[in-house]
């Protein structure tokens, strides 16, 4: 329990009506989760947020009826319930972040929290940082798209970045478990929706920024500003590590108070890497003048590995020890995962679901494949997401592949055939004889496996680690890796 007066000292509010000298047993922004307290002087707090789907202010009376003794809102209801304390704030989402942090005793200040933002590379980077620091003997937390971890305990992930209450609750559990570090993905949605407000970061990483989430941000300029907001809010005690090779790399950190550090493959930087050799077996890199071998493939992973190395060094780990431990790290689930059929054929499962990510993976494969080896790409686009990238995804797949199969991804509440119709214009006229449209993803993967010769490469793009297909709000079991393994054995 926490005293309301103490929590209020951590936020700015415009108006307070009622008695703030009460104890809080919970904070909720979903009125359906509220329950009355059975202790005198102990109440629940309801924070009315204006969301993208609904306005929490519409449920204030329901929240009070369900037991809320404190209401935080941007606009006071016309009728105030007796005995309820109302707190009017400028922005409820901002207030929630700071209230959640204070309610859980500021857990982000009790460990070293490092966040990464960018379009691509977030999951691989935080996952490998968690594995690296765990291998170094530290108890470490992870907040990622795939899974959250408290040490080695798995906690299912529902969002790239959890809401402010769940986020602080997880960080609190990490502190209780003795975690010294936590590495987390920071999505642009989370930044705009103030889910990370109230957190204290020891460092921030910028990977890259490309075409994505314009259904939410509307313009690329808004998307850039959302990412930049993360670095603008970093404290002076933190580091801001940015990718010098991205044209917006220095834009991200131009207003930060944090200590700016840079990494690069192409230009001089604080942390500089050169690719010596790239193959399906892994990367041979020269990192700040020292040559090392890594189990990950691709130029994009050279960037990820450089960022990981830089973070570890900036957190005080000796560089020699970092490189030794990094050389043993495997890829994150669903990120350039390689399967071989024993006869020279290679299938790759990758989460690439943006034009730039798909281009990076395909160009990497093309750089590795030998003369005469065919490349077939199976790709789709998610429903209820940015439609403008659909023909671009098809065009990129055709540009780099010998054959392409367009198929369903997560259609969500859209008709799969409509999504494929949006993708089809991206297929060049002269390429159409090499392209197939197979709506059923299982059949598309089966067909790809049957079409490819023993020495060819199949890329299954878009879903990566996901073990489901989202159709009309229902998640049906579906695993790209499982489908490839089942059908790879059918090849004679």
Structure notes:
- The structure is a single chain.
- It contains 16 helices and 25 strands.
- With 492 residues, the chain is an alpha/beta fold.
- The protein folds into 3 domains: 2-92, Udp-n-acetylmuramoylalanyl-d-glutamate--2,6- Diaminopimelate Ligase, Chain: A, domain 1 (3-Layer(aba) Sandwich); 107-326, 3-Layer(aba) Sandwich (UDP-N-acetylmuramoyl-L-alanine:D-glutamate ligase); 337-488, Protein-Tyrosine Phosphatase, Chain A, CATH 3.90.190.20.
- A hairpin with a 2-residue loop joins strand 16 (282-287) and strand 17 (290-294).
- It is globular.
- The N and C termini lie far apart (65 Å).
Mean pLDDT comes to 93
- Secondary structure: number of strands: 25
Strand content: 15-25%
Based on Cα principal axes, name the global outline: globular
Report the C-alpha radius of gyration, rounded. Answer: 24 Å
CATH class membership of the largest domain:
Alpha Beta
List the helices and strands and how they pair.
Blueprint: E1 2-3, H1 4-8, E2 15-17, E3 23-28, E4 42-47, H2 60-65, E5 68-73, E6 85-88, H3 92-103, E7 112-117, H4 122-135, E8 140-143, E9 147-150, E10 153-156, H5 164-176, E11 181-185, H6 188-192, E12 203-206, H7 214-217, H8 220-232, E13 239-243, H9 249-252, E14 259-264, E15 271-279, E16 282-287, E17 290-294, H10 299-314, H11 319-326, E18 337-340, E19 346-350, H12 355-368, E20 375-379, H13 390-400, E21 403-406, H14 416-423, E22 435-437, H15 441-451, E23 457-461, E24 468-471, E25 474-477, H16 480-488
Parallel strand pairs: 3-4, 4-5, 5-6, 7-11, 7-12, 8-11, 12-13, 13-14, 14-15, 19-23, 20-21, 20-23, 21-22
Antiparallel strand pairs: 1-3, 2-6, 8-9, 9-10, 15-16, 16-17, 18-19, 24-25
Helix pairs in contact: 3-5, 4-10, 10-11, 12-13, 13-14, 15-16
């Amino acid at each position: 329990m926490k005293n309301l007066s103490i929590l209020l000292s951590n936020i700015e509010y415009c108006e307070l009506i009622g008695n703030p000298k009460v104890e809080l047993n919970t904070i909720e922004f979903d009125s359906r989760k509220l329950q009355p307290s059975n202790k005198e002087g102990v109440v629940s707090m309801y924070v009315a947020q204006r969301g993208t789907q609904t306005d929490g202010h519409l449920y204030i009376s329901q929240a009070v009826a369900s037991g809320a003794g404190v209401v935080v809102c941007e606009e006071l209801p016309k009728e105030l319930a007796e005995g309820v304390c109302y707190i009017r704030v400028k922005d409820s989402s901002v207030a929630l972040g700071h209230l959640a942090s204070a309610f859980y005793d500021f857990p982000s200040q009790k460990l070293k929290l490092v966040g990464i933002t960018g379009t691509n590379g977030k999951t691989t980077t935080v996952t490998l940082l968690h594995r690296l620091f765990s291998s170094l003997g530290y108890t470490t937390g992870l907040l990622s798209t795939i899974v959250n971890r408290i040490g080695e305990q798995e906690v299912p992930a529902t969002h790239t970045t959890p809401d402010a209450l769940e986020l602080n609750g997880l960080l609190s559990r990490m502190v209780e478990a003795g975690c010294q570090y936590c590495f987390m993905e920071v999505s642009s949605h989370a930044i705009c929706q103030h889910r990370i407000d109230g957190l204290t970061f020891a460092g921030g990483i910028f990977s890259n920024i490309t075409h994505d989430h314009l259904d939410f941000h509307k313009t690329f300029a808004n998307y850039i500003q959302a990412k930049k907001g993360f670095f603008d809010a970093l404290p002076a005690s933190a580091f801001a590590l940015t990718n010098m090779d991205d044209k917006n790399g220095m834009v991200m950190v131009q207003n930060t108070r944090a200590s700016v550090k840079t990494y690069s493959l192409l230009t001089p930087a604080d942390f500089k890497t050169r690719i010596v050799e790239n193959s399906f077996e892994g990367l041979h890199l020269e990192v700040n003048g020292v040559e090392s071998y890594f189990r990950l493939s691709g130029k994009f992973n050279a960037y990820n590995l450089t960022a990981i190395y830089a973070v570890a060094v900036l957190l005080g780990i000796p560089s020699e020890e970092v490189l030794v431990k990094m050389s043993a790290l495997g890829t994150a689930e669903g990120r350039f995962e390689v399967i071989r059929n024993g006869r020279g054929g290679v299938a790759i499962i990758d989460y690439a679901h943006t034009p730039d990510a798909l281009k990076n993976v395909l160009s990497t494969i093309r750089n590795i494949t030998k003369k005469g080896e065919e490349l077939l790409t199976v790709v789709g686009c998610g429903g209820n997401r940015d439609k403008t990238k659909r023909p671009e995804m098809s065009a990129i797949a055709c540009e780099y592949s010998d054959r392409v199969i367009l198929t369903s991804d997560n259609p969500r509440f859209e008709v799969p055939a409509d999504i494929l119709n949006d993708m089809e214009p991206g297929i060049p006229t002269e390429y159409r004889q090499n392209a197939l449209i197979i709506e059923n993803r299982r059949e598309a993967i089966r067909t790809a496996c049957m079409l490819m010769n023993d020495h060819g490469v199949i890329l299954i793009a878009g879903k990566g680690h996901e073990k489901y297909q989202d159709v009309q709000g229902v998640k049906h079991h579906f695993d790209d890796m499982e489908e490839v393994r089942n059908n790879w054995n059918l090849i004679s």
